Amino acid sequence: MHKRVIINWELSLKCNLDCSFCSQQERRYDQKKELSEDDIYKIINNLPENSHVSFLWWETLLFKNIRNIFIALGERNITFEITTNGSLLKAFYKDLINYKHLTQINISIDGYGKVHDDSRGEKWLFDKIIEVIPLLQKSKDIHVSTVIIDMPDKDLVKIYKTLDSLWVTDHKLIYCMWFDDRDILESQKKIPELEIAKAGEISQEKIDRRAYFLQKFALLRKIQNKTRVSFEPTGIFGWEIYCKQISRQYRINELGELSICEFIKNSYTNIKDSSFQEALNDTAYRSMISLIENKFPLDICTYCCKNSKK
CA-CA distance, 274 to 266, in Å (whole number)? Predict the structure, then answer.
């Protein structure tokens, strides 16, 4: 059996919420055209048979005719997962539980109750998510992620205990992605060809946030029960790291182009016009991957969720 090919696909830059800590705000406001449905089918037909597609960031369920796209993946026997803010799960859950190739649903919960709703800008969203999780769990693996910026211990414990009571598979704490202009400049000194999007701005300093994050992780580990507690990224521990995105996964942007990651804007062959393998063999793409591997970690990579311990 061939090794599974993991493809992270940014199907669209659309989102129905406007979270203050979103690290992708610059890209959202700089959105170009998006793919037509026909172009998406071309890409699906050009993916390797052993692909697993992860639809991430943004709000995948907003994409027009998304149900047809999920069906097309299933017809090619390609498994997939989605990452969602949860706002549309109630409207879609009857369809989602019947897609046998949908293996995992990743939901973002970034506060308890009204705190979560206020950060998202939608009333009763937390309650709606908690209500729909048991319906989805009949056939799907449910993972929840929580971005840690400023959260009282009692609220984090409430979130975890609620998820644990629902038998959620995994509760992942996310160290909010952040880098400044200095990090961008230092990274571009190492690789001048890099085009880098800015991350979202936050008020706390890196070192303060690191200690704060590790305290929250330790807190949940003490009470861990059925729901596994995990975290990203491992770079905050100062361990030797590698990039999962460039060494074990691939990425397709909202235009269908092979790309590096959500912050490096350089893009390459469009998968709708080429086989996936031909795109991977593109000289410019291979050269950039090699440069990043040789210079890794770049300054912008230290706190990215795609880094992992060697």
Answer: 18
